Amino acid sequence: MRSLPGFEELRSLGNAPRLHPNGFIQLDLDDRERRLHVWPDEPVRVRTPSASIHDHVFGFESRAYLGTLVDRRYDLVEDPEGDFELHGVVCYVVGKKDAGLKDAGLHRLDDKRYRLVLTDERRVTAPGSYVMPPSIFHESVAEGLALTVIAMTAPDPARPARVVCRRGGVPAEIFKRDGGPEERERLWSIIGRARRAVL
Fold first, then answer.
1. Mean pLDDT of 41-49
2. Whole-angstrom distance between the N-terminal and C-terminal Cα of the chain?
3. Helix, strand, coil % in the chain, rounded to nearest 5
4. Distance CA 131, CA 152 (A)
5. Among the listed residues 122, 138, 136, 135, the one whose alpha carbon sits nearest the alpha carbon of residue 64
């Protein structure tokens, strides 16, 4: 994986940071192959409810440059008494950034109910890394301020990304990520603080 750009270099890339509904900041480092993630040490208000357990249509390696990330992996088990539903969404990486995906909604993939079974939990502390294959349900939570860079494999455009939602708690606009200039400057401020903390 290439070296981490400095803060001024990050700003000069010309890409706008986005606030993910799960509470972390995303910044594209190049043409969707590498992405910076920053988890603030204080919660930031998101515009849409979190649906933290999800999978990806691509695989990736995540390298921690600052802080500690807890990654939990799950099996989704069909259960007529289960508390969860399975939804799909067009993946941000697969779609064009300017093709209306900022407001892409979820669609239910089937009429089944599910339960979640935790299969693995790992703590990754800088300068550690982990690999995430495609199609694995997981969630990532930071312990304080954290900064990672993910390097993605080619996505599979033939299927949607999947999101596990609690029954009755389905976010309407899970990928509503782009904000106005004031929000972007707030996100840049957090990115700058995290980047300067990296030794």
1. 74
2. 17
3. 15, 35, 50
4. 10
5. 122
Q: For residue 4, which of 66, 68, 61, 70 has the smallest C-alpha distance?
A: 66
Q: Which two tokens stand for residue 18?
A: 């986005």
Rounded to 10 degrees, what is the CA torsion of 177, 181, 186, 189?
Answer: 110
Query: Quick one: 56 exposed, middle or buried, by C-beta within 10 A (0-12, 13-18, 19+)?
Result: buried
Identify whether the C-beta of residue 89 lies closer than 8 Å to the C-beta of residue 106: yes
> Peptide bond preceding 127: is omega within 30 degrees of 0, i.e. cis?
yes
Q: For the segment 94-104, what is each residue's pLDDT rounded down to a tens digit?
A: 554 434 444 45
Distance CA 98, CA 95 (A): 8
Domain ranges of the chain: 7-197
**Span 29-58, mean pLDDT?**
84
May I ask the CATH class of domain 7-197? mainly beta
Looking at the DSSP bridge assignments, the partners of residue 25 are: 19, 38
Distance of CA 43 to the CA centre of its chain: 15
